């Protein structure tokens, strides 16, 4: 399995490059976040590589930093998010901005990325929230400021509405979940409580 490549940049496109490493030209798919920092063909570059086997073929995905590759691996671990979808996410939203969108529950912003629908965006946010501290360390990103209770409430209601619940029912369920939580700030804990409330509505 190839984990790292260093060599001369032969060709460069927004979504792919060819690198000459030891006389072999490697075709590598990349996100825009990596493309911006590559420089011009002829430069010697170094990429962190994720090797993916697909239908008997090998695809190489390259990243300018180990943090980008770590985030890519987190994304493809999510149900229904394949390597090309994960690459589209990283091309549509810079990694630090993606972490901020996840922290703030910005489902709609992530859903604007081509190939990412509402359901996938919701799943992505919900599954990455618990991993934010690790992702921030891996990317070297500053910790996102804690949300105030008003922002948390709005995000919870938005999440439930995006999951298909009526606004009125979502408002009521979130209010009760917050009352029962005794100040518990964890988004996922509160979302589970609200969902439990909705099953009784």
Quick rundown:
The chain has helices at residues 32-35, 66-76, 83-92, 95-103, 107-111, 118-129, 132-139, 149-162, 167-181, 187-198, and strands at 4-13, 16-21, 24-29, 44-54, 57-63.
Question: How would you describe this protein?
Answer:
By secondary structure, the chain is α+β, with helices and mostly antiparallel strands. 50% of the residues lie in helices and 20% in strands. The protein has a five-stranded mixed β-barrel. The protein is elongated, with a radius of gyration of 20 Å.
Largest sheet properties? 5 strands, mixed, barrel
CATH superfamily grouping of the largest domain: 5' to 3' exonuclease, C-terminal subdomain
- Low-pLDDT stretches: 142-147
Overall outline: elongated
Number of separate strands: 5
Head-to-tail CA distance between termini: 52 Å
CATH topology tier name of the largest domain: DNA polymerase, domain 1
Tally the structural domains.
3
- Kindly report the average pLDDT value: 83
SSE series = EEEHEEHHHHHHHHH
- Strand numbers in spatial order across the main sheet: 1-2-3-5-4
CATH architecture of the largest domain: Orthogonal Bundle
Q: In terms of quaternary structure, what is this?
A: single chain
- Helical fraction equals 40-55%
Strand content: 15-25%
CATH class of the largest domain, anyone? Mainly Alpha
Number of helices: 10
CA-based gyration radius: 20 Å
Structural class: alpha+beta
